[in-house]
What does this fold into?
Amino acid sequence: MAPISDPYGSRSSKDAAIIARQEPVVYTNYESFDNDEVRNRIKAFESDGYLLIEKLFSDKEVEALKDEIKELTDSDEIQSRDETFMEPGSRSVRSIFRIHELSEKNIGAD
It folds into this structure.
């Protein structure tokens, strides 16, 4: 079986580059929604690449998430995994892929 090629080289390369998106951000026709707020949020997500939903998590939930992220990013085992990308020249974690599978507390599993 041939190895899978990642179309987003930023996940495997240490070189900085702007890479054109290979897939659409949103796979739906947002004009089909009757609600203006929903349409506007989908358009904003498509344009900005993120969606801000204030008060989605309680303060207690946010603290638990922050604690788990700190534990994961400080872990030598996690830092040495292929799923973890470090900032060049430092021990700072840039990204952890498959975090929902690596976290014992199921962070990101929902």
